[in-house]
Predict the structure of Oligosaccharide flippase family protein.
Amino acid sequence: MLGRYAVYVVNLLSMMILARIFTPEIFGTVAAIMVFFVFFQLMAEAGLGPAIINLQQMDAEDRDGLFGLTIIIGLLLAILFAALGPLFLMFYQLPRVDEVVPYIAISLLFFSTCIVPNALLLREQAFFSIANGGLLAETLSTAATIILAQLIDPLHALAAKGAFSAATQFLVIWYFSGKTEIGRPLPGRKFSAIKPLLGFSSYQHGFNFINYFSRNLDNILVGKYMGASALGVYDKAYQLMRYPLLLLTFAMTPAIQPVLRKYAGDYHKVEEIHQDFTFKLSLLGVIAGFLVYILADLMVSILLGSNWSEVIPIIKILAISIPVQVVLSTSGSFYQAMNKADLLFHCGIFSSIVVTISVLIGIFLKNIEILCWGLVAAFHLSFVQAYYYMYKKVFFSQVRRFFIRMLPMFSYAFAMVAWSINY
């Protein structure tokens, strides 16, 4: 977590600087393409990372075969992504959106090549090495973007940030993977090494695929039907809301599956850990959500500047969902640690349905605030379903005690909704 926090601090400083250099419209144009970049990332990764983490051993030939396969997949997907530039322009009908595509295609190639070495480091809990890669990538890419903004078109300068970041992160992660038990991967030709992983990775990929649409449909439709400026504002509000999630959850989520791997056969032990972990996490989430809500004006002023005042009412609504998202975002790692990727896939289907409905209502009414209220409700419904399923199918125990321990979190949500309606 300390390693990840260093990355988040640099990321936050980067956002503060770049928000004062680039306009909401430029951010929105880049964000419009980044939505599809995330989809292509899922296609490249295909659940391979978590599947590698769960392996007990791997020989050099299999390691290199998987690495070679990810290089080829990354190259093919990058070419395909670049070729889709005219279609992205036709879909969004946003000026110059196609100019961002080549830079994102380069990012996609380096992301794919980083999958295997990153999984090898996660497997051995080498979290500081991964954090060093993220820290260096964010620092160098931000510096390069600032310099490029003085030399070339601002849109191209901001779009190039992702390419610089992905390339730097791959080089650092690949270098550190040489210190793992399995060793640094080199391009190999044994592509059949993926066969033993397909059972786990297929369900994981299915979950990621469904989760992508439920978590990115809002950006796609806001960009298409409300324009680049509206997407820039909404994207920044969502990004600010995510910082508590980054600090409280995403920093530790990569560690959950590798650490719990040794308890995979003892669901009573994992359930005990889960109860204590999620209760404490929910209390931290309540504190974080409340602070974001009451300090929204100050946060936007300091972090983004005066040009982003439209972010304030949006982030206040989204702050109500912070506690439930903090806890819910760890659920996938527990499903993975217990080798229940198929159940995780089923949870993803339910979540995608309720999130999609809420997004479509907001887009139909062309009101971002209504869209955000819908997301708050959808996240809470997804929480109830995911943990009911977990206790029923994974821990084989009563879920009542878990929901009782979550009462402070639910009470916070009800109180903040009432506060928002009255004021």
Observations:
- The first helix runs from residue 2 to 18.
